[in-house]
Amino acid sequence: MVKSLQDTVTLHNGVKMPWFGLGVYKVNEGEEVIQAVKSAIKAGYRSIDTAAYYKNEEGVGIAIKESGIPREELFITTKVWNDDQGYDSTLKAFDDSLNRLGLDYLDLYLIHWPVSGKYKETWKALERLYKDGRVRAIGVCNFHVHHLEDLLQSAEIKPMVNQVEFHPRLTQEELRKYCKEQNIQFEAWSPLMRGGLLDNETLAEIAEKYNKTIAQVILRWDLQHEVVTIPKSTKEHRIIENASIFDFELSQEDMEKIDSLNKNERIGPDPDTF
Asked: Any idea where the NADP-dependent oxidoreductase domain is (predicted)?
């Protein structure tokens, strides 16, 4: 049972990762991302998730410095973009990300998408970075079961995390089950479906019952499914509100009601066709 914003899950290599963090996709570089990250850290968040593709790593780095929180208390994730995949280019992309962030190591480095014919070479680069102690954990994003099976045939190190689109309209049951069997931690991006669920009647009824917002109910549902989650927000009050989910627990019946909203509906691209 996750009881606070600082609670962690232990990845299969022993590294502890917070269950809850701030995502910064589509948060503008400069003042906007600096303020969002600083607000989150001030509110008790310890995990920040960015990516080279988001073009805001510099701002995230500035906010980390200005937060006054010791680096080792934070968990920082970034990702290698599709254009940079391949062995040497991934190693260079990692260095570039680290420079932009102003850090000397990362907590988690992820392959952003399974680029066909490239992701195995990319993974070899991540294994190298991991063995060299430059990153504490490595993983993937948007990998279906068949991508993971393919990767595991040649991988020396199993991914610690798979970050994918996950919300009540896309519950990814087969993938979640596979990741659990493989001891790969499942992580949700776009847990709130970019606001697309905030007028759902079933969720509204459940939210009213617990005296919580729909967003809080969805994020609590994530945690009770043992899914790491990183909702994005730029507004301080919303950042605080999103994290106010540790003082209630959804009943099994309500969990099942939310599960039943699944329609295998994506708001992002399908990894097989992207």
From this structure: 26-262
